[in-house]
Amino acid sequence: MSHASALPGFLPIRPFTGPVAGSVALPGSKSLTNRALLLAALCDRPVVLGGALFSDDTELMAAALRALGFGVDADEAAGTLRVENQAAAFRSEAPVELFVGLAGTAARFLTALCAAAPRGIYRIQGTPRMNERPMKGLIDALRALGADIRCLGAEGFFPIEIHASGLRGGLVEIDSSESSQMLSALLMVAPLADRPVEVHAIGGVRWPFVSMTARIMAAFQPGAEDNVERVSDHCFRVRRGGVPAYSAPSAYAIEPDASAASYYAALPFVVGGRLRLEHLHFGLQGDTAFLDVLARAGATVNATTAGFEVSYDPSNPRHGVDENFNAFSDTFLTLAALSPLLSGPTFITGIAHTRRQETDRVAGMAAELRRLGQDVLETEDTLSITPRPLTPDVTVRTYHDHRFAMSFGILGCHDLRGDGRPWLTIENPACCAKTFPHFFELLESLRTKTSAA
Residue 241's closest CA among 182, 183, 195, 185? Predict the structure, then answer.
C-alpha cells in the first residue's frame, strides 16, 4: 500500500508556526523514469535504473511492459528498476490488453512502442478522463509511418487497437502542440523504423521536454550522441538504429523530479526559512526554470554541490510575477496557488494546453482561487490573479489531479490565523500517488521538526 492510499478523504493542512529548516530528498523524475523504462526495454541487455520513481504512473508503465513480455524487477527500498528479457517481448499470439490509467506518459510511450513492434495485437485504454486526452497527433504520425492503429471509440482518442508490423520510416509530420509527450514518444521509437525518420513538428514545440528526450536517447546510445539531429526549430532527423535500437550502460541514474521540487522550493517562500533540495541540479529537466520564477518573486535560490537551496526572509516583500509557463507548465499551479500571498498581481500565460491534462487545469485553478477569495481573470491561455484576503475554512477540490493537491497543500502551510490552526483542507489528497505518494507525509515531518525546534 502506498503512503497516499492511507490518507483520509479530506486532509486539513496544519500550518507551520515557524520557519522551515533542513533538507528534503525528492522522488525520482516521472518523466525520466518512464522514458528510461521505454528505452531500457529497447536495449540489448539488462539495464538497472537507479533513483527511479515509484508511483501510480511508473507502476502502470512497468506493469504494461511486463504484459508485453519484458522483465521488470522493482526494488522500491533500493529505488531501482531492472529491465531485462528484452528478447522475450512481443511474442504473444493472443491480443495483449494494456491499461494506462490516467498516465499520459505511459499512454503515449506505449502507443508508440506497440506501433513499432514487429508483430502482435495490442489494445490500450485508460480511465474515462484519459480516454478524453489528446492522442490524435501521435496516432496520425504513426499511421503515416505505416502503423495500423484502430480507434475503438472516438477517432483520435483511446481506447485503441494496434495491429503491429513495424514502422517503415521516412518523412512524417506530427502535431504535438497539445502534448510534447507525443513528439517524444515518436522520437524514441523512430530508431526501430526500417529507414531513418525525419520528423516535422507542426503547431509548436516545447523544446525543454524534447531536449530531455534527445539527451536520454543519447545516454542509451553510447557513441551515437547525434542520433537525434535537430535540423531546425521544428524538424528532427533520427537515424535508423536497427534491432535492438539501443545499447545502454548496465545502469542509468534518474534525476530527482524537478516538477515535484517546485512544491518544496516554494515552502520556504510560504513559511520562511531555508530548505535544500537534495541532489537537484540543472540537468535534463526544464522544470528547474521554476526556481528562477521564485527568485524573481523574492526568494533566494543558490545552487550548491549538494543541491539547490531556497530561502526566504518574511520581512521582505513577495512580488507578483508575469511569466510564460509554456515550456514548464507542470509548475504553473505551484505559483498560482501561492499568488494570494504575493504583494501584487500575477499574470500566467502559455497554459492553454493544460486544459487537456488530468483535468482542465486553467479552469480548475481559477475556480479554487476564487473560492479562496481571490480576484481571477481567466482566458483560454492565461490567468490573471489579483491577491485579496484569503477566505478561511475552505476545502480545496483537487479534480483527481495530483498537482492541485500538492500546490494547495503548500499554501495551507501558511499560518493564516497566526495560531497554527488549520484553515485549508485538501479533498482527496491520495491523488498525489500519481507522482509523489509520500508528499504529505514528508510535509508533516518538516512541520513537526519546525514545531520541535
Answer: 195
